[in-house]
């Protein structure tokens, strides 16, 4: 049954502080008109301000709506994956960073880089077990990065050792991200999928999306094309947009790119009948 609308789950927090750094990104995307853009597609849009992300996602799915999560941190994936309550969940990650640091290998103390080890039961086990719907996930054969590039050798090896596939970005040669994404999604069936868009997947030529820009990333046209591909080649169950600090660079420019990317994704949901109009 197609979803009968979009539930926008709005959580403007960074390390528990409201509207701080990347926590302010959801505010900018909202103020630039994301709800209006989706309503213009004829989609029913519900809007929620909730901190308890797992429960919010579970409720959105129970209402037969598609969860669109505007979040500060990449850590959102922990709550979203638990809230979807889908044991055969796949992951399609647009991100310059792998978010796979455990406390044992992390070099800068940045907690937001440690979400995926928590979700697979590697770290913070006691607290992670308190999240509604939590059970440890595996990433071997069901995880695809696109645009991954800003890593140490240790981080890169952890991705490989975990069995996670990656379309690597880089400066040595230009990557055809859309063609590579199609190839990966054609070669392996990505059924129910958590789709994650960290806006620093964009190339640093767009300016600072957050405090961690890097070269060799996606251009806007590539990102929008990829957003159209994903619903046609997989079965998305949620979309997260995160890690955007509108005060780090040209916030309006990046925010508008985010809206165009989200809108293309939702158009593709409509085109594949995964979502119905109001």
TrEMBL record:
Transmembrane segments: none
GO molecular function terms attached to this record: arginase activity; manganese ion binding
InterPro entries cross-referenced by the UniProt entry: Ureohydrolase, Ureohydrolase_dom_sf
A GO CC term attached to the entry: nucleus
Short name of any one Pfam family annotated for the protein: Arginase
Record keyword RNA-binding present: no
KW Calcium (keyword) present: no
Keywords from the UniProt entry: Hydrolase, Manganese, Metal-binding
Family assignment from sequence similarity: Belongs to the arginase family.
Protein name according to UniProt: Arginase
Lineage: Eukaryota, Fungi, Dikarya, Ascomycota, Pezizomycotina
């Amino acid at each position: 049954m197609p979803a009968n609308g979009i539930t926008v789950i709005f959580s403007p927090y960074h390390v528990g502080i409201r509207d701080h750094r990347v926590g302010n990104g959801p505010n900018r995307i909202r103020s630039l008109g994301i709800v209006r853009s989706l309503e213009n597609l004829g989609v029913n849009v519900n809007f929620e301000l909730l901190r308890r992300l797992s429960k919010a996602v579970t409720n959105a799915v129970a209402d037969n709506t598609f969860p669109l999560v505007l979040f500060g941190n990449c850590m959102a994936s922990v709550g979203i994956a638990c809230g979807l309550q889908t044991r055969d969940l796949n992951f399609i990650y647009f991100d310059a960073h792998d978010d796979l640091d455990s406390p044992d290998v992390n070099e800068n103390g940045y907690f937001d880089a440690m979400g995926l080890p928590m979700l697979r039961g590697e770290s913070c086990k006691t607290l992670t077990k308190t999240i509604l719907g939590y059970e440890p996930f595996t990433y071997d054969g069901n995880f695809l990065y696109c645009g991954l590039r800003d890593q140490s050798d240790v981080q890169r090896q952890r991705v490989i050792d975990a069995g996670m596939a990656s379309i690597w970005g880089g400066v040595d040669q230009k990557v055809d991200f859309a063609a590579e994404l199609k190839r990966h999604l054609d070669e392996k069936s990505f059924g129910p999928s958590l789709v994650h868009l960290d806006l620093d997947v964009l190339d640093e030529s767009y300016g600072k999306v957050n405090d961690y820009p890097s070269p060799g990333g996606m251009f806007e046209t590539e990102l929008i094309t990829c957003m159209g591909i994903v619903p046609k080649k997989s079965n998305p169950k949620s979309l997260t947009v995160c890690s955007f600090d509108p005060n780090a660079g040209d916030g309006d420019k990046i925010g508008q790119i985010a809206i165009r990317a989200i809108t293309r994704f939702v158009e593709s949901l409509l085109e594949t009948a995964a979502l119905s109009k109001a």
